[in-house]
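Lecture notes, continued. The same structure-token format from the folding unit now serves as the input rather than the output. Read the line below as a description of shape only.
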């Protein structure tokens, strides 16, 4: 029988489960949307029990889809960070899991800033002050749902909650713990001083262990619910982006993962962390990597792929509402190819959802600059792609300067990698080869590898990478484009935000004044 390593990716859009052979070949997969509830404006949450039932159905579907000669030997769980589940003494969920993008914790963060402070938070945990931070959710419950908080005996991140339901162990791994904003990044332990300051008992958070730790075996009740073999080894996975980086072998200092979705996450592997308030102020978070002895720095763009989709939808509406989405996208790419580099002077500031790191400005907006009567749809679409690539380059340059690391492998994943003009522009600006692995479910694969390490299928990360094989394509930088885009980046793009900052604030002030009238 072939060994099947199972991996789970609990995403904010979809929940995915996949099975892989020891060499990393995908054997089967099942996907369902992650049901998100929006009880009030700005709120977003998940029903933990419904999510568990959905996961059980997916795992049963995966078992049915497995080849007859494949037998599960381990399972690892990765997924979104920050969203967590409060459990009572009997392990039952007390309240919905508050999503990482839920905004109800804004006032809680202000209290944290006054109580703990920006400098202490950054120097201890490596994290910037952020409403998404996991620890703010139980603190919000303490203030607004005191009865629920009083009954709470455990707080588990969503992936950890699912592991708990599978095997009964209440623990979290270092990568997910890093996003809580209470992990001491140097010692890899919960910060006793910060927890004391905020009045949270360490026992609520569960044991903090390395990624790839065996937690236990699938219980009899979980086996009945999921169809998984009784006693199947359950291992800690971790934060989705970190697990994807591990799966793709991005564990050497200087390696970069560019995850190109609606938002864009950029992660670089570090040998040592350098927590500081200055880095945190630039929106750069640091945490513990899933690979032993490694750390990471991570930041990103709020709406990169979303900006491409926005311009596609906008242009399709302007030109022909009846055109199917796929055809509209192909038309857009064709028009982009007909426009020269630089979009004949049209530039785009990609701040459709405020400024991106390393700039912090919630008042900033998107803008086209340099329009003339000659500009057509292709100019606008290409300018959007160039603006995204410039903004990504700006963030990468900031991270490279701050951590002073040699350049390693630069790998890109996600839907954005299928946009060839965008990838060519990025490669030119980065100035090195961009590798696009042919791995459809990198997060699931990372979780499966870590589950396999916990089960002893692999002796560690190095042996796993020796076993796992996948193909990839490479995008080489064009020297002429590199000279052109880097010159335009310095001479024009770097000035766009500063030139428009006061105008955008004036627009916001005017809109707020109108809303009060």
């Amino acid at each position: 029988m072939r060994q099947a390593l199972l991996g789970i990716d609990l995403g904010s859009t979809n929940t995915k489960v996949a099975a892989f052979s020891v060499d990393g070949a995908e054997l089967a997969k099942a996907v369902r949307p992650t049901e998100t509830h929006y009880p009030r404006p700005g709120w977003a949450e998940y029903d933990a029990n419904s999510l568990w039932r959905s996961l059980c159905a997916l795992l049963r579907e995966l078992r049915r889809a497995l080849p007859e000669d494949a037998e599960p030997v381990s399972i690892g769980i990765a997924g979104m960070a920050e969203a967590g589940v409060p459990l009572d003494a009997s392990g039952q969920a007390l309240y919905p899991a508050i999503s990482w993008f839920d905004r109800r914790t804004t006032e809680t963060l202000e209290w944290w800033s006054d109580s703990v402070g920006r400098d202490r938070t950054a120097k201890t945990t490596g994290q910037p002050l952020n409403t998404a931070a996991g620890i703010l959710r139980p603190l919000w419950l303490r203030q607004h749902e005191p009865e629920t908080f009083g009954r709470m005996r455990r707080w588990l991140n969503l992936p950890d909650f699912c592991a708990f339901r599978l095997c009964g162990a209440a623990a979290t791994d270092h990568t997910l713990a890093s996003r809580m904003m209470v992990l001491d990044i140097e010692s890899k332990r919960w910060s006793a001083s910060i927890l004391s300051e905020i009045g949270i008992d360490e026992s609520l958070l569960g044991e903090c262990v390395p990624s790839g730790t065996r937690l236990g075996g699938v219980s009899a009740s979980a086996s009945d619910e999921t169809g998984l073999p009784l006693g199947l080894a359950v291992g800690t996975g971790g934060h989705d982006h970190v697990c994807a980086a591990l799966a793709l072998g991005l564990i050497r200092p200087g390696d970069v993962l560019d995850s190109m979705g609606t938002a864009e996450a950029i992660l670089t592997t570090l040998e040592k962390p350098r927590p500081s308030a200055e880095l945190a102020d630039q929106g750069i978070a640091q945490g513990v990597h899933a690979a032993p002895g490694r750390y990471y720095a991570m930041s990103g763009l709020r709406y990169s792929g979303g900006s491409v989709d926005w311009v596609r939808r906008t242009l399709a509406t302007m030109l022909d509402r009846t055109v199917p989405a796929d055809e509209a996208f192909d038309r857009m790419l064709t028009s982009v190819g007909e426009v020269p580099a630089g979009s004949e002077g049209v530039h785009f500031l990609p701040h459709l959802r405020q400024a991106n790191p390393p700039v912090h400005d919630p008042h900033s907006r998107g803008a086209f600059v340099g329009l003339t009567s000659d500009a057509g749809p292709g100019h606008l679409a290409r300018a959007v792609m160039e603006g995204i690539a410039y903004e990504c380059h700006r963030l990468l340059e900031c991270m490279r300067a701050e951590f002073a690391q040699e350049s390693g492998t630069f790998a890109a994943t996600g839907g954005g990698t299928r946009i060839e003009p965008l990838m060519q522009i990025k490669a030119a600006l980065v100035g090195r080869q961009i590798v696009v692995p042919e791995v459809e479910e990198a997060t699931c694969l990372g979780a499966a590898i870590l589950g396999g390490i916990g089960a002893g299928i692999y002796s560690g990360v190095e042996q796993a990478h020796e076993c796992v094989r996948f193909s990839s394509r490479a995008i080489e930088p064009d020297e002429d484009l590199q000279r052109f885009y880097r010159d335009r980046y310095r001479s024009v793009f770097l000035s766009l935000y500063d030139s428009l900052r006061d105008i955008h604030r004036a627009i916001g002030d005017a809109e707020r004044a109108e809303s009060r009238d």
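Point for the exam: Residues 336 and 382 are 5 Å apart (CA to CA).
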